[in-house]
Amino acid sequence: MYLCHVTQLPDDGARGFDTGGAGQATIFLLRRGDQVRAWVDSCPHHGTPLPWRRDAYLDASGQHVVCAAHGALFDPLTGVCTLGPCLGDSLTPVALRIDDDGGLHLAAGEDDQLIKKKIQETP
Asked: Which parts of the sequence belong to the Rieske domain (predicted)?
């Protein structure tokens, strides 16, 4: 599944994607320079969506992914919680494929059913 071109992600920013037509983001992509990560949009603490508004995945400093429900902070490249009630837990990664032209796609096998399962497995 095609998501977007890498240039459509803000550098040092994030953007959510509704991969299954649920009406809200189920995953988000995060870009740091030439590095891109994809995560399930679900906090490992309670399974709630992370942003307080559309695409608001980062804290005010832009340095950490933040859970709007309880303020947990996550390292943007490793997904590990560095502060908050889920300290040491991690965001759930989603495999990406980047084509030669910079297009970002869900990797083979990362379909909406698998993403839903990953969300349900979050405590």
From this structure: 1-105
